[in-house]
Amino acid sequence: MSRASDFDDIIDEARLRDEIELAYRETSTLADARTRVVALLKQANADGRDRARALLQSDRKGLLCARRLSHLTDTLIRVVYEFAIARVYKVDNPSAAEHMSICAVGGYGRGTLAPGSDIDLLFVLPYKQTPWGESVVEYMLYVLWDLGFKVGHATRRVDECIRLSRADMTIRTSILEARRICGHDGLFKELTARFAAEVVAGTGTEFIQAKLQERDERHRRQGQSRYLVEPNVKESKGGLRDLHTLFWIAQYFYEVGSGEELVARGVFSRAEYTRFRKCEDFLWAVRCNLHFVTRKPEDRLTFDVQREIARLLGYQARSGLTDVERFMKHYFLVAKDVGDLTRIFCSALEVNHAKSAPMLDRVLGRLARKKRRPLAGSASFFIENDRLMVADDRVFERDPVELIRIFHVADREDIAFHPDALKLITRSLRLVDAALRDNEEANRLFLEILCSPRRPEAVLRAMNEVGLLGRFVPEFGKVVAMMQFNMYHHYTVDEHTLRCIGILSDIENGRIQESHPLATEIFKSGIQNRTALYFALFLHDIAKGRPEDHSVAGAKVARKLSPRFGFTPAETDLIAWLVEQHLTMSMTAQSRDLADRKTIRDFAGVVQTLERLKLLLILTIADIRGVGPGVWTGWKGQLLRTLYYETEPYLLGGHSQLAREKRIESARRELDFALADWPADERERYLARHYPPYLLRVDIDSKLDHAALIRSADREGRRLATRYETKPFEGVTEITVVAPDHPRLLSNIAGACTVAGGNIVDAQIFTTTDGMALDTIVVSRELQHDEDELRRAERITRLIEAALEGREKLPETIARKVVGSKRPSKAFVLETQVTLDNSLSDRFSVIEVSGLDRPGLLYDLTRAISDLSLNITSAHVATFGERAVDVFYVTDLLGQKILSSGRQAAIRRRLTHAFNGTEPEAKAPARKVAVG
């Protein structure tokens, strides 16, 4: 509890009164006095808030800071009220009608206040009123507004308070927490006595239901997971509002005024109440610092401020985690503790509530009379009111393996846990030791839970919520509540892993077949190592937060853990391989040219067997989808399917090993046959327009679309032709451009897409023998309905045409677009990396550029590549949160790889400048020459 001495340095009330009295005596009018008084109050408020902030930075006690700010505000309100009734609206002999009680309500009523919070006041007036009361209230409000306070207020008689409380749950809650600041004590006592007798009495069930429904709705709005990486400290699951909800219910149902009384009532143990206080103090420290840093009532802990809050709270980098990652891990552990306390509280509430009234329909059960039924083959557990319950409080002490078995039973019976069972599990975690971890039966049960054909995610999440999962698998415990400080991952590592398991189960059971037909078909046709796949997915991020690469370190963990769970040496090798390579397929699909045979050949060399390819594909899909909403796209799915289908023949030994010349001739004959309805001479001329790379790399359907576009342009005498097509399943829109070739063509197309808001994810660039360029650009789909997306595609295409015809001045337009765009967050600092690799392709140099994403980036990069006299044959653009990874397959003007080390160094320097937006003045570009 706070002591009076905790507030001594915040404000000197007696001194402030003396200063105000002196100011009053030194002025001749009330208007002048008011001006002086407001100035003194403003200064006192500013000094007090500065002192509260300084004390928070030194002692880091968040709850105490909130109480200091509440005390400061109380003092200012008392002083304003006393000045108003003593000097402005003085009544020498006040009647019963000339009284009022000024009460703090809402969060302020609890005696806590965040720096940017509103001040909620209730002016309680007597039954008979005079103009005096209205005048005093108005005077006080105007002074408080002049001080810069945001005041929420209500002026009511006691009767009105009672009547409105019965009808409105929000008003009822606010009066439940009402606290008298100043004014008539009798009015406040009358309000609280009548509120208890006429509103609270006999309405416990109604209030509890309403508050829990409010909580669930709030969680739905904020996101059901408490492990979102930019949480709302107040409103998110596991935040301050959840603690407030518990205390509201405690005040209402148990009629307690402090948390200490909950210990006396047996609701919380002393240790649990201590945890409650620590959670509350930590969350208040975060919230108060958040308001001070942002200078506004901002409760969302965004990336922009996380690092600064971590510094203010004293976190430092350690054990492979940065300071901000350690802070956020602590935050999520606190949010998890809040969830534990909620379960314990609801369990106690159910036990007590069942004695006097029917159970609550949802949270507190469905039946007042207990209905029990035994479980076949188990004396340790039984079913009570359709929930899994323990036989007695010593079940786990007699046999710690039952800690795992109870979750196995919950999965098998598809049944929820009784809150008392979860409470006992939480209090029995000390029983999880090396002996239990090495127990063959316990490990068998756990593996069956993980690989359950039902819904393993729900049971594993319950294990994680009570703290058992991290205790039983300590390596997993290290990533519990661990966040990754980037914009790509939406959840903590443990939450991401559990979501991945759920997605894998959905794929296996055909619940998301429409989105993942290939993965679903692979499961249906049968895989040899289903259990190994589930276990590898469980371990794929197990080594996050370590200094070394988490994939390599994770493989080491897999080799250590797999034998414990009964896997053979061959299965252990497979699991370790899947963990080590879990990013390989995704990175290859998104950043390599899948039409390049060397890409497929190298990937097949890594995978080696068809079974590994199947497992890696499914694991990759689950991993990407588990990152967060919107991360998985149909285009990523199409890339993965393409990589799978291109690699499969290599692994089966059936891929054509024909010489390049024979493959070129085969592709030419295929196109010739497909154009059989063209006149022979026209067909011959058309085939002669394409260089071999085009014939080898483009599928026949696209070749026919291109042929129709080019033929139509020739007949109409147009040098510029475009077409667009939506691909709903892939989630992309494809734009094809035929135009006279020139060095800045791709750059202009990229610039036009930037201006039009089109996000390019892929590009294929070809040149014809008559100097025309045939470029295919793939942009992310944005609109749900095809007709809307087609209109958007038309708008992008029209802008591309305007840019290529010189009707749109791109540099100026892009500059305006970039200025108006959201800039990258200052929270992230990424080193720009440029690599040039000649080993990834037989015919092209591969340039990979990565760093902090920004508007107009692709335009700047492609323009710089043009200035470097390089030909781009394909571009692959990917973003991972704040990080952009752009890959270009290029040659020099003679169609050769870039082999000179000096030339490579110049390319890296120039592209680094372009990526960072600091590129030097461009020289006149050389003309792009067709590649044969």
UniProtKB/TrEMBL annotation:
EC number per UniProt: 2.7.7.59, 3.1.4.-
GO function terms (MF aspect): [protein-PII] uridylyltransferase activity; phosphoric diester hydrolase activity
Residue span of region Uridylyltransferase: 1-374
Listed InterPro entries: ACT-like_dom_sf, ACT_dom, HD/PDEase_dom, HD_domain, NT_sf, PII_UdlTrfase/GS_AdlTrfase, Polymerase_NTP_transf_dom, UTase/UR
Activity regulation details: Uridylyltransferase (UTase) activity is inhibited by glutamine, while glutamine activates uridylyl-removing (UR) activity.
A Pfam match: NTP_transf_2
Organism domain of life: Bacteria
Domain ACT: 734-816, 846-925
Comment on protein domains: Has four distinct domains: an N-terminal nucleotidyltransferase (NT) domain responsible for UTase activity, a central HD domain that encodes UR activity, and two C-terminal ACT domains that seem to have a role in glutamine sensing.
Protein known as: Bifunctional uridylyltransferase/uridylyl-removing enzyme
Organism: Methylobrevis albus
